[in-house]
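User: Structure please.
Assistant: Input sequence and predicted structure:
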Amino acid sequence: MIKKSARTLLAAVTLLAFGAPAAEAAAPEPFSITENIGDHTFTTEGALNPLCPDSGTFTDELHAAGGNASGFNELFRTVYTCTNGNTFSAQKHLRLVNENGLIVNTGGPITLSGGTGDHTKLNGHGVGTSTFNPATGQGTANISGVLQLS
């Protein structure tokens, strides 16, 4: 009886391990986002283009902030809304320093996650840099990385 149970267990483990081939995930694809910080618009290139043609708008929600004289850290949750109505989300960690009166993000990690429409399974990561002029309220952010659509 013990031998039969052991054989049954071995057969089950073998089927689980070697039975059906696992589905392969799609290969990560490069993307880039350029944000106009002053008017909260963005454009995309690469893997995001088919899902988010042309451009769109974004909203940043500050979730945490802190720093000292050498720099400032901020955590934003961002929702991107494409011109076709689809949305996707990001979490942005910014490391900000003052360089000659400009606020510069020296390179913080970005995590993309799903949203609505064609973006429900989107996930990815990258790095963002930015320059913002507080005197004019204008600036540009550049985000690049890789993402998977499924």
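The CA atoms of residues 73 and 95 lie 5 Å apart.
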